[in-house]
Every structure is written in structure tokens, then in C-alpha cells.
Amino acid sequence: MIASEKAAWERELDEWTHEKDPFSLDAIDEAQGETPFSGGEYLHPRQVLRELEKAMPEDVMVSTDIGNINAVAHSYLRFEKPRSFFAPMSFGNCGYALPTIMGAKVAAPHRPAVAYAGDGAWGMSLMETMTAVRHDIPVTAVVFHNRQWGAEKKNQVEFYNRRFVAGELDNQSFAEIGRAMGAEGITVDRLEDVGPALKKAVDMQMNEGKTCIIEIMCTRELGDPFRRDALKKPVRLLEKYQDYV
In Å, how far are 165, 235, 236, 243, 245 from 240, measured between CA atoms? Predict the structure, then answer.
């Protein structure tokens, strides 16, 4: 029964190529007329996550950050042994993924180490790229560049009828910034390049001792949030708190 349920879930993931809520469909239409600064096209996050999963090396360690794409990413990660997955859970500790995977790499230098981060969270931790380079802690960072605080915008879609406040991000190339800090940088704007980019970055990590930033240009689609009740009124169970709603 478990095998059957897993197979059904895998089939659903294969068929789920893009988000289908009204906001995401509008975002997909918007992306049709846009060209990333890299010159390619904006990619559907779910398709990107599937290609990353296929290209993951054996014995990999992965950390994920806070963010909308990372919430979706958890469905596309597969591990064969314990101590392989590091997630921030519901603590909201933005900027978690890169320093966490660096610590994991120090503890297990023989294992490939990959961090997932959205561009918002990446802005809080990208300076640690210099730490990785300076102290010879080779890791691979996958940055989903969708030009927004996706988790915050998801709340504003669901609870505020798309009345957006401080949700947009105007970023430079994170791959170029990575190169400026002494790491390698790869910008991906074609779906067929996702897997090869990850394999190349991991090869540089394991065989050349290099940190690499993979910047993936994504549409502004929004998947399910970590918590659906993020902005709902709390339920006060104790009588003394009944007036505080």
C-alpha cells in the first residue's frame, strides 16, 4: 500500500508542471512577455525542482531556506540515509540554508552539500559565500531568482486580495555577485540546463574544492505556503485571554 501511494504521488508530481491558482496563471502570462537579463526565459519552479531532483548526486546533503519555492521543494527531495536534510521548519529563520549547509559540509566533507534559497532569503546570507571561499568550505547554492518575497506575497494574495506591500525585489545577477566574491557562478534560464548545471557545480565542489552559486531564473508562480493559517485570528483557549483576539 505504501509503494502504491508513493507511486501515485510521483505521478502527480510529474504531471504538476506549474501552479494553477489564479495569481500564478497571471504570473505565467506575465512571464511570456518578459526576458530575463540573462537572455533566456523564466522557468516554472516545479519543473526546475523536478530536474534538480533527477540530477542530485548520491549521498547528498540538502538544506532549504524559508520561502515559497522552498516550501514546494520539500516534495521533490529524496534521501537514502539519515542526516541528509536540513530544513528551518516553521521558525521563520530567513537566511538559514547557506550557513547550515556549510556547517554540514565541515562535519561531512566527503558528502556533496547543496543549499536551496529564494532570492529574498539569499539576500540575508549571500555574504557567507566569502566565508566559504576564505575557509575552503566548498558548497553548492541553488538560488531561485523570482524577484519577490514569495512567502509574503502568498499571504497577501490569500488574505489581502493582492494588495501587495514590500513584496517585490529588484536584483542584480547572483551568479555575478558570487564570482565577485571568489566563487563560481552559473545562471540558468533554460530547463534543459538545470540538471547539467547542478552536476557541474557538484563536480567542482567535490573535485576542485570550489563553491558555486547556481542562479535559476523563475516565474513568479506561488505554491502552497508553509502554513495556511499564517494570518488568521488565533483561537484563545484560556478564559483570561478571550478578549485578546
Answer: 34, 13, 9, 8, 12
Superfamily name with CATH number, domain 2-223: Thiamin diphosphate (ThDP)-binding fold, Pyr/PP domains (3.40.50.970)
**Residue extents of the structural domains in the chain:** 2-223
d(CA 96, CA 130): 16
38 HSE (CA, 13 A, CB side): 22
Concatenated DSSP letters of 27-75: HHHHHHT---TTSS--B-HHHHHHHHHHHPPTT-EEEE-SSHHHHHHGG
β-bridge partners, 63: 86, 115
Looking from the CA of 146 toward its CB, the CA atoms found within 13 Å total: 30
CB 65 within 8 Å of CB 97: yes
Q: State the chain's mean pLDDT as an integer.
A: 93
- Mapped onto helix, strand or coil, the DSSP state of residue 197 is helix
pTM beyond 0.90: yes
> At residue 79, what is the residue type?
F
Distance of alpha carbon 210 from alpha carbon 240, whole angstroms: 57
pLDDT digits (tens, 9 = 90+) for 231-244: 777 788 888 887 77
